[in-house]
Each structure stands twice: as structure tokens, then as C-alpha cells.
Write a structure and sequence with these properties.
The complex is a heterodimer. In chain A, strands 1, 2, 3, 4, 5, 6, 7, 8 and 9 form a 9-stranded antiparallel beta sheet that branches. Chain A has 1 helix and 9 strands, in the order ββββαβββββ. By secondary structure, chain A is mostly beta strands. Chain B has a 3-stranded antiparallel beta sheet, with no helix packed on it. By secondary structure, chain B is α+β, with helices and mostly antiparallel strands. Chain B is elongated and about 60 Å long. Classes of the chains: A mainly beta, B alpha+beta. Chains A and B meet through β4, α1 and β5 of A and α1 and α2 of B.
Chain lengths: ~140, ~80
Amino acid sequence: MRAMKSNDQFELKAKDAVIHFPEGLIGLAECKDFVLIENPNLAPFRQLKCVDSPQIGFLVLQATTVITNFFEYVPVREWESLGIGPTKESAFVIVMISSTPETSTGNFQAPLLVNYEKMIGKQLILTDAALSRRHPLV
Amino acid sequence: MLVVTRKKDEKLIIGNEIEIQVLRIGRDNVRLGIKAPAHISIYRYEIYEAIKSENMNAVASQIPDKETLDKISKSMKAE
């Protein structure tokens, strides 16, 4: 697997609206503002990048792309804590891409929820649902 | 680290909103009840650490090339 040239000169574009994560991500409490970057070279994946530390970023995927009814696994109180109802466009998982589709995984145990109206998000851990943090993408 | 001794049914309060109560004391475990505002996330430490390490792995991994991503994308759609 070749790596794409890392984007050191990361510039914030106007269209890349900033999503605020009040608690940061798990283990990355200092990163509170992210941009969700769409790029034809990455589709259907998107890149989530920390605004203050551009070296912190990863690929995410809409969770329902893999588990169609994923939003049902997220407790209602979690959606409510963000001020939204269950929607498939609002749940993402962080993916780990490997050289083959079969070994590529997504962290379905700790999804990211986003409220696009308020542009706020959070990462939560699903402790009740039997979802893996290394769930195969295919 | 603050160390406090509590008996069964006794509580602690953290800040103005977070209450922790000792519900049961077993031989080698204790059962705790926690009352906190909805926006406060409460997890067992081990699971938090596991997710943290997954996040770190994801940060450390490089963005794959288009070919690899396309291959995965096609396999996902095939299902």
C-alpha cells in the first residue's frame, strides 16, 4: 500500500465548516475543532482533521454504509445529548484501512455523532451493543 | 490522588453535580452508583483506554492511495 503525500500545508477552506467537539475525542481531549473534508480521491471515506493540530486526522466513514441500521444501536439519550434524533447521516466511524478490503476495519464501538445544524459532535462508546472496535468493513 | 474511606451507602460528591454512592461491598469488588448530568460520559476505565489506543492507531496510520480505497469501496457496495 502506497501512502499519499502527507498534506503538510493544510489550509482551511471556507467550505470546510468546523465541527466543534466540546469534549474532544477519546484520548485527544485537546482537539476540539475538526473539519470533515470531502475529497474525490477518498470517497466514500472522508477525512476528519483537527484544526489546531493538522497532523491529527483520520479517515471516517458513514456508519450506515456498513451496518445499515447502525443508528438504532445508538441509545436515544446519546442523540438527545447532541440535540438531534437518530439519523444515518450523523453517525461516523473511524476506519483503519489495510492493504486488503477484508482486513480493513472500522471502530463501530466508538462512533462519532454530528449535529450539522449546530456543528457540534461527540465520540461515544457503545457499551451495551455487541459492536467491535475492529469491525470488518466488508 | 485524593484517598477517602466510605462505608456502604455513603456518597461522594464531585463538583456540584456528580454523586458517587457505594451500593455494595463484596469480597473483591464494590458496586458503585453514579449520578451525573447527561453530558458527562462515564465508562469503565479499561474500555476507555482501549478506545483511546484505537484512536491513536488511527491517527498514526497513513492515508491510503485511491486504488486501495476504491477496492474497499467496491467490495462494500458488492454486498
